[in-house]
Amino acid sequence: MTEFGFFSTIGIFFAFVLATFLLGSFFTIFPPPKIHKKFSQESNDVVTRLLRLLSQLILKEKKIVLIAILIIIIISVAFSTRVKTESSIESRMGAGSEIVKIMNYFNEKFGGTDFLYVYTEANNVKNPYV
Questions:
Q1: Which domain holds residue 128?
Q2: Percent of the chain topping pLDDT 90
Q3: pLDDT exceeding 70 applies to what percent of the chain?
């Protein structure tokens, strides 16, 4: 599972870099369509009024916005230390599930349920179906 997290992080990082540096050139080559008048600043629906009020609040009260962002970051960091990874099948499926019972049986009788890879070298074995 560690490799999955590592490669996911790399993928997200490269997606961020590509979006940051190539999105402007993409919109230069393929300009977005014109905005319909219904969705422009002149419209007076509830969403537009709410967004206009929010943008004015952000522009006027910069200190409050910065303090709110800092509070959110501090709370996020504080609670991120409490996250625990649990990847055992027993915790996901429950102790009484059929899969857990079978795994316990294999652990007792055969010494475990982990994968075992055997690597052999031989010159005379060319076809694995022989």
A1: 93-130
A2: 18
A3: 83
